[in-house]
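INSTRUCTION: Work out how this chain folds

Token vocabulary: learned, describes local backbone geometry

RECORD BEGINS BELOW THIS LINE
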Amino acid sequence: MTKTYLFILLTSIWVLNASCSKSNSPDSKTQGNTDTSINPASLTIFGAPAGAPQNNTFSVYVRYQGGQWNDLFAYDAEVDGGNLPSAIYHMAFVSFDSDFSKKIEVKVHKNDGPMSNVKIRPEGAGIVPTIVDANTVTFTLTGPQKLSFEVNNDLHNNLMVFANKQEASPLTAATPNVYYYGPGIHKIGNDGQGTLVLKDNDKVYIAGGAIVYGSISASGANNIAITGRGILSGAMFPDHAYPHTIARRLIKIEKSNNIDIEGITLLNTVSWNVSVSNSTNLICRNLKVMGWTINSDGIDPTSSSNVLIDDCFIRNYDDCISIKLSYGGAASPTAKDSRNITVQNCILWTDQGRALGFGPESYSSQSRVYDSITVKNIDILYNQNYNVDWAKGAISILLGDDATMQNVTFEDIRVDRLGTKTNLINLSILQSPYNISVGKRLQNVNFNRVSLNSALNIDNTIQGYDASRVIDGVHFTGLKINNSNIKDAASGKFNVNNYAQNITFN
């Protein structure tokens, strides 16, 4: 494969990367490659390209201890739209990199009025703001964080702060087999509605300060990577309003092996953000995913094995992470087992849907298996379920399509807030509108140190289907709801039917 490159690098403190280097891809147009990146000793700040979507609710500044304040560009992320033709709210987000060899100080100024009841979540991060004046606070970071900055109890118009550790080996335009997008605005297919198709050994690098409009896909590819500090956006696609093109994904990987997706931000998808099907050996790390429309699932491994989802932030309108066997509404003879999947160190926020939703849309014509799924060290900042009886749970297993799910562990899961008609746990064998048949068996599910930081909204659920399709072996250790230790089904308000057995609380 032959690729051509354009790369400009000015060394010293000010760095200018202006490039969109590629070949064998859809036509692309690049705009506004005139912005800069500041790189003091332990802090990297990427300038935003001209025309970037800006949020003016907050002004945000950052400095390393003993340094000067640097202005951070506050990007705009549309949130919470669902079936509507456009989003209702606009969340701000900023990002920077640091080696954290020195403490990092962040200053936030609210531009449209005073701040009250300032909260920085997740609470477990232990970040306490210092009040400067009625409109301004500061806080200190000693390591990488993904934080929600909230004032006046407003969950919709909040600010996300993404403090990344510095990239170990950022790619350059001179690297072989790299589609390099430097600072500026890039449009795949000239109109930002095209798709970059990857082949074996291809890499995509979206640099800090770059926005790439369009989508990326791979089918039957080995050893591919999509990395960087920039933004991949579906904002140019015309069909966000529901009913939209459900098959459209921002990143779509199928029948591929050895996939690395790391560091970038995903915005304004029409449908699922990261769709991976019939693939093996996938890593999704340090992704920042924000979507506003219905079906904007965050990361969905489907009929895939050896998957690691690590250190990601996802806020969208639908499931944040959903593990499936197939999709599309018809029996799929190509569906495979989903095995060895780990989700860890993530922060999740679901405006409508389930933060962790496993088992729906299996659509398999054969009895397939979900096996060895581990979810650990997760903060769920908010979860609102759909107002549908079966579609419940911040942690949800909805097992259909004659599938078996086994050896599932949830540990160190902290759920902060639930919306109305939403519960913490829903384990059900069923046939939902997204299944072609009833599930087969759910067994050996462990909940270790799971907590809900509020009272329950509706009862939890553990329900098998009949005497031959049962839930067998659900074990709770250290379950806490609203600071109460749960020692039995009654105190945890669990609705357990006669087709669920070996349910224990310790």
